[in-house]
Each structure stands twice: as C-alpha cells, then as structure tokens.
Amino acid sequence: MIRFGPDGRPEAWNTPGGAILEAVPATVLSRLHDSARMLGTAATGRVSIGTGEEAKHFELTGLPQPDGAALTLGRDVTYDANVAAALSDSRRRYKDLADLAGNFAWETGPDGRLCFVSAKSALGHDADDLIGTDPARLIIDPASVPSPLPFRTDRPVRDVEMWVTDR
Fold first, then answer.
1. Is residue 93 part of a domain?
2. Beta-ladder partners of 139
3. Residue 58 lies inside a defined structural domain of this protein
4. Which residue in 29, 69, 90, 119 is deepest, having the highest Cβ count within 10 Å?
C-alpha cells in the first residue's frame, strides 16, 4: 500500500508498496491517482514492466481519500500472468501438433459434443461446422462399432474401424 498526498507525491508506504514504487514508473501511478481523484471512485489498472521472462506484472487500485490524497493498493500478478501465458502457449502448441497430424484430432466437451477439431476441415465439413455436433451422428452404423465409441471414452481406444458420413 502506498499513500500519495494531495500533491501526488508518495507520503508513506509499506514494504510491498516500496517494491511497487521501485518497479512501476511514477507517470503510471500518477495517472491512476489522477483518475481516482477526478472520478471520486476507485480506479484500477494493470501494468507490465519489462519484456519476456524478466517482465513483472502488477494489478493496481487507486482509492481517493477525503483529504485529496490517494491510496494505492497493488498486487504482483507476475505468477498469474506467466501461468496464463504458459497455458495459452501450451494450447497453441497442442493445436499446431494436432493440425500437423495425418488424420484429425478432436475434443469433446462435458455434453459429449465436439468442442475442438484440429483440421481446417474433416470429412468434407469445415471444422467450425462440426463444433457443437454430436459426433455419434456421423457414424453410419453405431451398432457396428465396439463400445465405447471412440468419441465417448475415458480410456484409449485403438484400431477401431468405423464408417462415417461425409458432407
């Protein structure tokens, strides 16, 4: 936490607030306080300092005070931002890998319907047209396919031959 006086200068801070004062440019903090004071309500923002793996990310909230001062509450969200970036990168890499596969890969949601199709098209359908579809309706003769259906299983299914409809 940092307390900024009515003149916009820091008056007092705790240890985490000192770290924010060192890391975040004064102009960013100044804009946050000006917004909070002018609006008369909390102003929030997120700021990233640096690039790549060295980047630090902060979530900041400016709170106007009755005496014209402002309090800044800050939180280091670097870990959260890094986890979100890693998850996004992992999903992108998975999709790239699935797109490179000779056949197509799919994912079904909790309702059993397709929520991801790796190829731009499969079985003559655009991938977007297959999203939300019950994949079992694509099988010509579901009774001829051993259980469980490859689209609805919680264990690996290999070497299953089935006939499906195309567009």
1. no
2. 164
3. yes
4. 29
